[in-house]
Design goal:
mainly alpha, two-stranded antiparallel ribbon, about 500 residues, about 60% helix, hydrolase activity, two-stranded parallel ribbon, hydrolase, single chain
Length: about 500
């Protein structure tokens, strides 16, 4: 329980003497029941005033300053990308984050990139990606990737917005009649412009804003975890040569207690292997985009669960309302079609990451003393995912993590040993030429070696027009170059 003077001072610390007093007067005018609820909180539960100031700055940068800006935000799409970027940048530019890449860091990255490209010249037929890799700050990674993340998440956000509108108009009826004169983030009053006091209009804005806030928070958190622009296995930056977040690379090296130059070279080697693959194979990223879009558009929302979330948010508290647009709360269990699409994503991602792992091993084995340790650490990280990555998966509704990277790397290694580098890399010339991972029977030894052949042209057609096409078969075999990880996604 807090006294009035404590809360009044907190408002002043958040908003300054003038606006803080205005916020306090707004609080005094609230109904007794709401005031008592707010005053019953412990002072320790109040957010840091610096965080509140940052949130208000983020809203100002997110196009929420006026009724006109709010209307434009709703019209621009299901996600307020400006707000997502603003919130993410606040985290990426916090007190623990470097604002610039130092000359030493930039030199270390360029030296590593130059060195690993020489190694790759001997182990792959693919030429270096055009342009030069960038030494990035956490903020630069956010700026370079947030649009792509928003594009992936847009179908899910659109489904959320449509479902929210349906629940409010068709199910809740009179529960949302009347006008809303204000909202509160905890005890923080959020003024509502005249034109947005219709609950239905306000809910559209809220869904747009809430999803953007979650996306921004996830991107900001992930900016502290990623080390290279291809860490998720897909192309996110516009610069095809990619880049390294050098502060994160240095922190990773310290955590592993391995020489920073070796860790930088290892991560640069992975980054450039990805960059060469994506730069040489023009169909690869569009294929991922089609698969991810198909999966996201197929996600359906549980209207009963959303209605329950909204009914439990009678005070219009943004924290409780955010549950109505949280996929983990209101998303339906995936269908067989969703599982099939997810399997296609995981298969292609495993082939990409397996190829990279194979090339990295052949390129770095003579140069990196801790190569095996670093490879195994990377595999485990990709299999489990970090906290921010898991948050992203809740927003997107899917996992961008391969389930069978180890098997795919073994497969590419067998192909390299048996047919050579040129033949291996030529398989990326067309989707139909890609090798097949062993099917479930092969991995248990219960049948003759037999892999699954995916007709990628038919797969893309099915994704775009919902036509079903059967897969054929192709021979394959389990390898002996390392242990089988025993995982499989259906």
């Amino acid at each position: 329980m807090m006294d009035e003077n404590t809360l009044r001072q907190w408002f002043i610390d958040c908003f300054g003497p003038v606006q803080g007093e205005m916020a306090w007067r707004q609080l005094e005018s609230l109904p007794d029941q709401i005031r008592e609820q707010l005053m019953s909180q412990s002072p320790e539960d109040l957010p840091d005033p610096a965080q509140i100031r940052g949130m208000m700055q983020a809203f100002a940068g997110g196009g929420l300053n006026s009724f006109g800006e709010m209307q434009q935000t709703i019209a621009e799409g299901p996600i307020n990308v400006k707000l997502a970027r603003s919130i993410a940048l606040q985290q990426a530019n916090d007190a623990e984050s470097e604002r610039i890449v130092t000359a030493e860091e930039g030199s270390a990255m360029r030296r590593a990139m130059s060195e690993v490209n020489l190694w790759l010249d001997t182990t792959t037929d693919f030429d270096p990606a055009p342009d030069h890799a960038e030494a990035l700050t956490r903020a630069a990674w956010v700026e370079g990737t947030i649009e792509q993340w928003a594009q992936f998440a847009a179908p899910v956000a659109a489904s959320m917005n449509d479902a929210l509108g349906a629940v409010i108009s068709e199910r809740l009826g009179d529960a949302f009649d009347g006008e809303i004169t204000g909202m509160f983030a905890g005890p923080v009053p959020i003024p509502i412009p005249e034109g947005m006091k219709d609950p239905r209009q306000l809910m559209k804005l809220f869904a747009n804003t809430s999803y953007a806030m979650q996306l921004g928070q996830a991107a900001g958190a992930m900016s502290k975890e990623v080390r290279g622009s291809y860490d998720q296995g897909i192309e996110l930056l516009r610069n095809p040569a990619g880049g390294l977040i050098m502060q994160n690379v240095d922190e990773y090296a310290r955590a592993l207690e391995i020489d920073a130059a070796e860790v930088t070279a290892f991560i640069a080697l992975r980054e450039q292997a990805y960059a060469r693959l994506y730069a040489t194979v023009p169909w690869l990223m569009p294929r991922f985009a089609a698969l991810i879009g198909k999966y996201a558009r197929g996600i359906t929302i549980d209207l009963d669960a959303m209605e329950e979330q909204l009914r439990g948010a009678s005070s219009l508290d943004p924290e409780s309302l955010s549950g109505a647009v949280n996929l983990s709360n209101v998303g339906l269990t995936t269908t067989d079609e969703q599982k099939e699409t997810m399997h296609s994503i995981e298969t292609l991602l495993a082939l990409v990451e397996g190829w990279v792992d194979c090339v990295v091993w052949r390129s770095g084995m003579a140069h990196l003393p801790h190569l095996e340790q670093l490879r195994e650490m990377m595999r485990r990280e990709r299999a489990v995912g970090g906290p921010a990555e898991l948050t992203f998966e809740n927003l997107l509704g899917l996992q961008l993590r391969p389930k069978r990277t180890r098997e795919a790397a073994q497969l590419w290694e067998r192909i390299t040993a048996g047919q050579g580098v040129e033949a291996r890399d030529a398989m990326w010339g067309h989707p139909d030429l890609l090798p097949s991972l062993p099917d479930e029977a092969d991995r248990t030894g219960a049948a003759e070696p037999k892999g699954e052949r995916i007709d990628w042209d038919a797969e893309l057609s099915r994704l775009l027009d919902d036509d079903a096409n059967d897969d054929g078969t192709n021979d394959g075999a389990n390898g002996t170059n390392g242990p089988d990880d025993g995982t499989r996604s259906n």
